[in-house]
Amino acid sequence: xxxFDLHTHHGTGENAVFSRSFGRPYPESVRFSAGLHPWYVSxxxxxxxxxxxxxxxxxxxxxxxxxxxxxxxxxxxxSLQERAFRHCIEVAMAHQKPLIIxxxxxxxxxxxxxxxxxxxxxxxPWIFHGFNKKPAVAQMLLxxxxxxxxxxxxxxxGSPAAQSLAICPPGRYxxxxxxxxxxxxxxxxxxxxAILGEVQVGKVI
Length: 205
Ligand SMILES: [Zn+2]
Known about the structure:
This protein has six helices and eight strands, in the order E-E-E-H-E-H-E-H-E-H-E-H-E-H. It is α/β, with parallel strands linked by helices.
């Protein structure tokens, strides 16, 4: 069987979670996550986006909420990003779904929001997808109870992703292909196996 792909914009296999974002086209697929991506959030469609998410999250093949998060280098107004992200968290909490997080230069901010939820926040897994930062950042997120998901960056020897995966305890990480249709999930698992020996992805999704 194909190994589990936590987050993909191409794969529609049974063992993959296709990422649906409000306002973007998506194929019908077996499993998906649904989120309000900070890139595509806008003030005039926010109510429609909230309605859409509500419809998506109750569908039988919805595996999680996301991608959702905060992005300091995109042009979307910050307070709007924060509103959309907080809404996604509330939906994930209400439906007990894993949260798949898009985070660009906003790790402290996301963790601060997680902290507001206290121990209640740990009822759902908070998964930082596309992780390619140094082990110090990985350590900070792992200590806060979060999960990390790694993709094609693992194929680059010595990349921050490769260094960070090496310090992840078993079960606290996932693997993904994201937007790379030139990289197979098998290749990402092979790269992870070369780093870890035995690959043991999380079982929370
Ligand atoms: Zn993505």
